[in-house]
Amino acid sequence: MNTPKPTLKQRFILYLEKKLPAWKARNFPRTPVENPFHLSDLCAKSNAEKSKDYLSALRWAMENEDVLNIALTGAYGSGKSSILRAFKEKYEDYNYLPISLASFRDGIEEQYEKDGVTHYRIKKPNETERVEQHRLVELSILQQIFYRETDELLPESRFKRIKKFEMYKHWKKPLFLMLWGICLYYVSNRAFREQFYSWKSMELWVEALLFIISAAFFLYGTFRLLMEGMKVLASAKFSKINLTGGQIEMSNDISNSILNKHLDEILYFFQVQPYNVVILEDLDRFNDPEIFTKLRELNLLLNNSAQVGRRIVFIYAVRDDIFRENNRTKFFDFILPVLPAINHSNSINVLTDSLENAGLKDLLQKKFLYDISLYISDMRILKNIFNEFMLYRKQLTGSSFDPNELMGMIVYKNIYPQDFAALHVQEGIVYSVMSEKAELTGKISKDFSERLVKAKEELALLQSTIANGINELRMLYVQHFVIKTGAKVTMINVNGNVPLSAMSDDENFKAFQKSSRIGYNYLATYGGETTGSGISFAELEKIVDPNVNYEKRAQLITDSKANSEKNLQNEISELSRKIQFISTRPFKMLLAENKSAIEHLNEKFSKEKLLVYLLRGGYLNELYEHYMSYFYPKSLTDSDMVFLRAVRNQEGLPHNYQLTNIEELLHRLEPEDFILEELLNFTLVEYLFKHKSSYPKFIKILNAQLSNVSETSVNFLKAYFPVTTHFDYLIRVLYLNWQGMWAYISRESDIPEEMTDKIMASIIKTATFEEMEAINEELLFIRHIMWKPDFLTYIDENSLTQKAREVIEYFGITFGELDDDQEGSSLFEVVYKGNHYKMNEHMISLMARKKGSLHIDPNNLNTANFTTVVASKAEDLISYLKSDINRYLLLVGLELPDNTKESEDTVVYWLGENILMDQKLKIIELQEVQLSEFEKVEQDLWKPILNANKIHPTWKNVLTYFETVSQIDEDLLAFLDHEDNYKPLSEDKLENKAFVIALIKSRGSEAAFDELILSIEEPVDEEPFFASVAEDRINKLIWQDVIAFSQYNFNEIKNNHRDLIPALVEKNIDKYFEDTSLYQLRITDYLALMESGISSQDKGKLAEEVPYASIQQSTPLAAHVINHFASSPYVSRSYEVIEALFAQDVLQEQKVILFEKHVQDFDTSENAVLLAHIGDKFGEIIDHSKTPFIPQNPVNRSILEKLQHLGIIRIFPENRNHYQVFH
User: Fold this and answer.
1) Residue 208: what pLDDT?
2) Does 691 score more than 80 pLDDT?
3) Where would you tag: which of 259, 381, 856, 1204 has the fewest CB atoms within 10 A of its CB?
4) CATH number of the domain at 61-158+252-337, out of 3.30.1370, 2.40.160, 3.40.50, 1.20.1440?
């Protein structure tokens, strides 16, 4: 079939479609292309700001005429190309010729074996290969020089290239040849010219002009053709000229040194082109300084060439280590070291910036990025890693993948590209490591097994050591019991008759501890006998060690080794778990949990630190295929596949992660997989529980997994309990497989109380008594029931009343707390009648209020618990408490902080029971009630009762105690010193003379003494205690009339407490005056009495008793006596007494008054003496030569009248308020 030819219009349109894109590209700027993945090219970037210091240094070198060879030195990726690019952009006044050898391979790689491991290295070239390599490098340099420019710019060059024939460029040459041929024909053919002239009828000058033009063009054309021919001959090389055969062959030989052979071409190139800066990059790939030698030589030739005639600078971008020692300073005129723009420490910044720009700032783990950046120090590799990550991530969208694992795979691909390629065909380092996993787990498992056996042996040894110590401690208490009985004990009555040798067994010793009256069998004269000791274990504890009880001593034994035992148990548990899970552990966990695992892998892998890190972190794992191909969903949904991958990688998803096709998912799993925690999923477990008969192997391992007490399993159960529809089955699975299930639930978990109660009800419902005993580890299950306040009604609501009653009776449960509304349950009566409740404040209060026949005030239970219970008439409760009063007191009676107001009857009852002395003492201490009489309790308790001030303060009780001890001991003295006691006692009558004497001699407080002596009825007499009693106390006794006024007591006080005589006389002044001759007083005694509070009358009587000699010896006493004489009625007194008083320095007025009373009793001479003693003007009265003036007053007038009457004076007329005496 013939295809029709396109029309002219169609051909024109096709031509435009072909030409327009190229024309548009040349004449219009390109429209920016969208970059949705934020990709980065790997080219050098120009950044003049960051490179300004380098640019300044490079600029200086360029302007230095002596510098011809400049080296930029730095490691790969240090930014040398970026600096050069920035330099070219900033300094456009230079003409740059860039040359790069980046396309050359570094060398030929070869394999070699070492220690059985295959290694790779760059093969060292032999001489032939080295020469060939140099030739190719020089050829590449030459090609980059000449192929940079077009033929038109290098017309004299012998290097020709294939060129595209373009009509618009080549139409001139054919036209020129055609015109040259026409001119040749026209000039050389005269006949043609004449014919042409005649045809056109030209004039002669026109013919001449046309001939001249044709001849000139012909000559010009001939010259041009000859010039082109000479160019061809100049650029051609001939290997052979055969003149006879007419052959000329062009040379194909290329010398080994390309640059030397074509030096003329190079000189020509720089002659015709303006380049003055040659930039050479990547020459250091070949590690051969000889190339630089040739280029330095070339540079020297160019700069010395007159043909070139200008300065040309070569700039080399090379590694620091390309030259050894000082060689590099010989090759280069200026070296500019470049600090790497990126290295291990800052590559993280570039990577995180790229991710942030792409909107993926938080997609990858920060630690992972920091870690992998330590292995990347090349900017191009870093950019490529990012580019590939973005593209792979897009390609893998729709299938589940971990971005961190994907990044790990990309890093591996870029750092180990050959191994990555080998991984596709199941070869290479990584594949070999993956295939060695089974062997690795076997070795690790063997190590764990050996350590497990050793740990178990150490634990058994440690436990036997602890057991021996506990047994020895228990036997110590048994031995003290035997000693306490004083009998030949053969058996002890606990759990039946138990031989002494078996008493250290757990059950026997626990029963021994609980016994309040331990019974025993002993050998008697006529056989064995059984009796009760009345000894409690608590008493034995006091005997063995008063400060530390048995439990604490046992704890001290176990604590000393508890940490070691716990550590061993933890180690055994951990090793067992590791052995169980080792085969399912991914490499990440194998390496993390077993530091020595890496040693079991092949040497080549272990030396590759990046691979080790990726494998340790799980970023390179067994699921690597998922990151190397697409996922095609079939029967599994994408979410199912996500779950399966998470399981294989052992990275858990949320427990409530939704699964779709569970049956198909189970086909992809093995029973052994269910030891993995990652398979704990609500939907999956619900499906298996529902179809447990179809998956027995799965169920068996799953049940073990649910019961293994791992953190993941426990967290799963906490979340699964509220949502499962197979609750009872789940709970039964747990308590049958998890021995410490309830211990964990009740003590260590944060499971809500409602769920805990639901689990409890499920256990009661489904478990047998034997199973409950296993569940009831450390009595925690029964304890939960005991302390559940609403247990009775909760059981009723769940229709478990009968089973719960059996449980209560089987285990002997005693409830510690029940709510008031539990009375409505049918089980409440069972609890009350069977004493299934604890002796504690709450339960006693509940039973007293609910079961007592009399109404009680609940508040009284806090302050007088037992008394209030007795008052409630709850007989079963009262009997229950009295049946074990010791326990009641220990738990309630002595523990309630406010229970201090029990009645006297209650306290007497308690003190009369067979309880520990410590408890009795505590009762006495805590209870506020005071006993009315000592006789109500044992005499052994009198002293503590007295010390606690818990006896009524009556002299009867005091004397009862006093008669027992025959003295006022420290305890009685302390009792009497108490204000609450001595105050009431002071109001009672004390008639016991022995006690009074003891009280006087006692050393109690003075405050108490002052009060107590008020109660003494009869004064004491003729008791020789004065010498031993303080003067102050004797003084108090005097004033309290306790000391009788007798000559014996007077003399005892005078001999022992002389200063108290005035007090004794003052207190007994009437008795003193009865017979003053029996009591001799001293001047000081008279003075004290005169100054005391006795009446003036008594003082006057006392003044009459003062001896003449005492008056003469004491002026103060004389003053007191004369005062009383002057103020008292007239009494006849002897002249000697009056004269003695007047002789003392006493008040003149009193002398005058007393003289007036006695002036008539004495004669003139005696009165003259007395007047002289009065002194002043009174002494002149008896002097007849004087007429003294005496002041006017009634006393003086009476004296003068009496003197006048006696004839001693004649007259005494008044004269100016005075009496003038005349004889």
Assistant:
1) 78
2) yes
3) 1204
4) 3.40.50
